[in-house]
Amino acid sequence: MKRIVSAIEVARLANVSQSTVSRVFTPGASVSEKTRQRVLEVAEQLNYQPNALARSLITKRTNMIGLAMKDIQNPFYHEVLGIFTNKLKAKGYSVLFVYTENEEIQQEEINHFLEYNVEGIIITDAMLSSNIVTKLKNNHIPVTLFNRYDKNLECNSVSCDNINAANEIAKYVDHLYCEKIVFITGKINTSTSQERQEGFVNYFKNKGIPVEILEGDYTYERAFFLTKELIEKDYVPDVIFGANDITALGALDALKSKEIKVPEQTMVIGFDDIKMSSWPNYNLSTWVQPIEEMVDETIRLLERNQRETGHKTVKVQGKFIHRQTTK
Amino acid sequence: MKRIVSAIEVARLANVSQSTVSRVFTPGASVSEKTRQRVLEVAEQLNYQPNALARSLITKRTNMIGLAMKDIQNPFYHEVLGIFTNKLKAKGYSVLFVYTENEEIQQEEINHFLEYNVEGIIITDAMLSSNIVTKLKNNHIPVTLFNRYDKNLECNSVSCDNINAANEIAKYVDHLYCEKIVFITGKINTSTSQERQEGFVNYFKNKGIPVEILEGDYTYERAFFLTKELIEKDYVPDVIFGANDITALGALDALKSKEIKVPEQTMVIGFDDIKMSSWPNYNLSTWVQPIEEMVDETIRLLERNQRETGHKTVKVQGKFIHRQTTK
DNA sequence: CTGAAAGCGCTTACAG
DNA sequence: CTGAAAGCGCTTACAG
């Protein structure tokens, strides 16, 4: 049904060899201007387009990057996705996209990437087993974890310096003389939630100030419920720090529904700076993850691995942005 | 640097021909159980994986679908993306993902898909020029517009029956005895906004009731601004119908910021039923687009075109869901 | 600057 | 059930 026009047909019509047609479509190859024009004309007329698959087979370069993503729920990752595809496109890569439902990427999804010979894999918001990392290493295909980190995994990782960020937030909260301090975690098995908790709680531990830890799961609904429950138990915190913005937004809405004044009675702080956080109705104070920078670093690590082996861990800083939910 | 293990190497080690190795990895091909086991073992040991590129070259099937998406801002499309990739994966397709910044998909993006010989293209939340549609038709590659429609374009289209939906909403509003009725449009050059406006406005036109049209652009910010402006001019509508949920949410927040009681003073209705609309703090009444059904239809149309030519337009119905922003 | 030829890693008639 | 061989559409030394 579908007939692919090949270089041979163009060659015949243009009265050149197939090699010459190929050269016309290979940047940098030497072809006389006259020949080039003729070939281009015929190609246009025949609707010819070089077959990337055949080309990849011989050049061993596919220009494809596998991108796996979880948690399509969190708007943060949509921004991430948009930036990744744009930057990757600008560098001439295509994106093979996989949406995964598990916290850990499955063998099946990785096989998929391998079959297509992707030149690199980016995993956002999910983890890999060390088995898979090893397998990938054997196949010499570089992997970068985006916004996740595991010191036992021998692969690249790019994330925010969560510990330091949470520490800064704690410092900020502390200078506001808060006593009743609440941290709502994200999914507790994620490095992001663990690190943010560590940075936040440790600061106060050193000062002998207790922090109430509530186990969330990075969803709005859970944070809403937890906060509501808190208020119903007559516990009105001075500040709630949510492990991400969605969490903080859930807490914020629960506070509002209970008619707690923000920031007067309770302050709320998030993490990510998703678009919604700056909506007039929320105006959430939060930690800005520098997505662009993180994406750039991720791509840089991947490209670096095309020349040399080994893996690197990159932590970017980001910054606190003060809006209306903190004093 | 990267060395691909080929079927030849497996064949040598397993003491069979390369053809046999190939057969082991071709479902339905006849191989003796004994041979199969031996080959599988060696393959495992060598970390062998059939090369999808080489396979595609000869079978003329790539199992790749090109998915182009705009407006990564609207959460509706994230849900769409998640469902598409899952359903496509379940059918054995890979997704080549492109994020586009223009309302109209560019030639460049399409070329990209063509080079990789995708078996079908899905365009969500964006349009195509008729030029490109023609080119695609010449290349026999089926296209389906998702949530967009243009009667002049000779390609498949799947969308909600927006006219009827908006008509139903109008009917609902009407039985509540509203007089001051506002419609906030989306991007005015989109079929979705146009159709929703048509269905809504025509109903009232027939009754001689005027509808105030405000030109939005499918963003929260714009809707917030327009609504705020309205209230500041002392015009408090009985109902605001936003062309999508994000628009309605912007209007809703503006109303709240002006301390207008919802739904008592002003009712608000959206379209899409994104996750946020059911957040406790919003509880937006809206029209549910049946995404799953729409995605299924889209894939069905694409697969249909592998057997027969021609194009179809599918309209699904969806339903109104009453929450707290309407009486 | 250009052509003939080898080869990338597969599938699939064809023959046995 | 299995192997030898042709061929998918390209790139790229090699030779001229």
TrEMBL record, chains A, B:
It comes from Cytobacillus kochii. InterPro entries: HTH_LacI, Lambda_DNA-bd_dom_sf, Peripla_BP_I, SBP_2_dom. SUPFAM superfamilies: lambda repressor-like DNA-binding domains, Periplasmic binding protein-like I. SMART domains: HTH_LACI. This is LacI family transcriptional regulator. It comes from the Bacteria. Residues 5-59 form the HTH lacI-type domain. GO terms for molecular function: DNA-binding transcription factor activity; transcription cis-regulatory region binding. The keyword Secreted does not apply. Transmembrane segments: none annotated. PROSITE patterns: HTH_LACI_2. Keywords: DNA-binding, Repressor, Transcription, Transcription regulation.
